[in-house]
Design goal:
Elements: E1 45-46, H1 48-54, E2 60-66, H2 70-74, E3 81-84, H3 85-89, E4 91-93, E5 103-106, H4 110-119, E6 127-132, H5 138-149, E7 157-160, H6 163-169, H7 204-214, E8 224-226, H8 230-234, E9 250-251, H9 267-275, E10 286-288, H10 294-305, E11 312-313, H11 317-321
Parallel strand pairs: 1-7, 2-3, 2-6, 6-7, 8-9, 8-10, 10-11
Antiparallel strand pairs: 4-5
Helix pairs in contact: 5-10
Length: 332
């Protein structure tokens, strides 16, 4: 007997202009990023032009996310703080479920996230803008996902589409100056983060259950999207104890959703590309990659831009799945 498919409808989304669209409509046609005239409620993805328009806002805090200081030392946005992704947004260490394997992408705690916000001089009520340099914004979006999971207000956190290169292409000013300390920062109230919102983070047990659902015959739902490279998916690029993919997962490399310049494609195009991988969008429950960074980018597309609220990011990803001796694996 065919499996019943659980259907969900994307929430009504706001386009780049901020206007509400009908339930079930394609959320955006054209650029997904808010333009310079989008005002004070631009949505999660903003253009370099919007950032330039708001660069002087007293409540704007800007963070340049990167794996090292190389690009930041040469150029960054005026006023931007540097965040090292491996010190603040993805931690190195070991975990019980994977034994002695050294992990690179463990999820920080809410206390860790609060500490990071203080380092960035972000206080209660501030608007936070994240961008990156060499990561096609997946590093910045890892930070966005993490902070949203701990309750940072959705209307006060944004990603600059295209990162530092989009800013440079627009001809806007960069600097090598470091932000000066401001004594007033010590007097401002801290951001109030909460406990982890489980609707953002897929667990191993959840993904295992969705994998079993996705492998129950030809009419099974498409629960999981693997956003790694094709070689990782088939298991020839080995980045854990075992290679391959989660049974039932469909494949769509995250980079396919970006233009050659590193900006997001229009949302309708991105959704069409994911569908072309045999994915029923309203059935998807999790995205995954190696360590939850590329997965966060595709989660951002589905959850934040397209309104599929049931989608989570499996942050443990292949770093957990491929290093557990008990996890089922498929190879092509």
């Amino acid at each position: 007997m065919p499996n019943a498919r659980t259907k969900t409808t994307p929430r009504a989304s706001r386009g780049a202009s901020g206007s509400k669209q009908p339930e079930g409509a394609v959320p955006h046609v054209g650029s997904a990023a808010a333009s310079a005239d989008a005002g004070d409620n631009p949505g999660p993805l903003v253009s370099a032009a919007w950032v330039r328009e708001h660069l002087g806002d007293d409540d704007l805090r800007i963070v340049h996310v990167a794996p090292d200081r190389r690009v930041y030392n040469k150029r960054h946005l005026p006023g931007a703080m540097l965040s090292d992704i491996h010190r603040e947004l993805a931690l190195r260490g070991t975990a019980d479920e994977t034994g002695d394997v050294e992990r690179e992408w463990l999820v920080p705690s809410t206390d860790d996230a609060s500490r990071v916000l203080r380092t960035w001089r972000v206080g209660k009520g501030d608007r936070l803008l994240l961008y990156d340099d060499v990561g096609l914004n997946r590093h910045a979006i890892r930070g966005y996902w993490l902070l949203r999971m701990y309750g940072f207000p959705k209307d006060r956190i944004h990603i600059m589409d295209g990162g530092i290169e989009a800013w440079r292409r627009a001809g806007f000013e960069t600097t090598t100056d470091l932000p000066e300390a401001d004594l007033a920062d010590a007097l401002r109230q801290p951001v109030e983060l909460g406990e982890r919102d489980e609707s953002f983070l897929a667990t191993y047990d959840e993904v295992l259950a969705w994998s079993r659902e996705a492998t129950k015959g030809s009419n099974a739902p498409t629960r999981i999207v693997d956003v790694r490279t094709a070689n990782e998916y088939v298991g020839t690029d080995l980045r854990a104890a075992r290679g391959g993919h989660i049974p039932g997962a469909r494949h769509r490399c995250f980079v396919d959703l970006l233009t050659d310049e590193g900006t997001f494609r229009p949302v309708d195009e991105m959704l069409a590309l994911i569908r072309a991988s045999g994915v029923e969008l309203d059935e998807v429950r999790a995205t995954y990659c190696q360590g939850g960074v590329r997965a966060a980018l595709v989660w951002f597309v589905l959850h934040e831009l397209a309104g599929y609220d049931d989608v989570k990011s499996y942050a443990g990803s292949w770093e957990e799945w491929g290093n557990r001796p008990d996890s089922p694996i498929e190879r092509v």
